[in-house]
């Protein structure tokens, strides 16, 4: 039986050479993000951004919710996959991060599809529920200590058959080491356990990037 290969730099370069469809806007935002300290750990990989765009298109999503904007690379990828009357609500704790991405959203012609909500994501999710919002697609990539809460609060906002994508569910491999007990690792581990037994959804954890879990609401 074939096993998972190790994605060393040579393999990663090959994948990007034969699969990644890049352009100046995407590359420009990645270059801008690279100037931020710790950007490598926080930036969505370009092939993951391409996967998100593909999934938005495959699900026919018209309304997308993103929890955790950072500099808006994943925001850009998903917004470009929306129809012209689509909507993407993205939330972050600080305005300075989405402000970095906004010029690139404008260059791509999707800035009008994107609504940024700044503040605690818990408050944003509560407000969206009060507004009666409904989404076809949710991407979770924010503080790991809040992952379980973000999942539980975004699931009621998702239409039946909709998709939640959760990033960093392998969390640098720490989730597989029981000796690692910091709050972020424990929180991701708890979410993985909850998802495994949650009969409301179908799941698949992809060993790609830092772990990407696809969650389809029944």
From TrEMBL:
Species this chain originates from: Streptomyces spiroverticillatus
This protein's UniProt keywords: Methyltransferase, S-adenosyl-L-methionine, Transferase
Protein name, as recorded: O-methyl transferase
PROSITE patterns found in the cross-reference section: SAM_OMT_I
GO molecular function terms listed in the Swiss-Prot or TrEMBL record: O-methyltransferase activity; S-adenosylmethionine-dependent methyltransferase activity
Origin: domain of life: Bacteria
Pfam families: Methyltransf_3
Record bears the keyword Ubl conjugation: no
Coiled-coil features, chain-numbered ranges: none
GO biological process annotation, one example: methylation
Origin organism lineage: Bacteria, Bacillati, Actinomycetota, Actinomycetes, Kitasatosporales
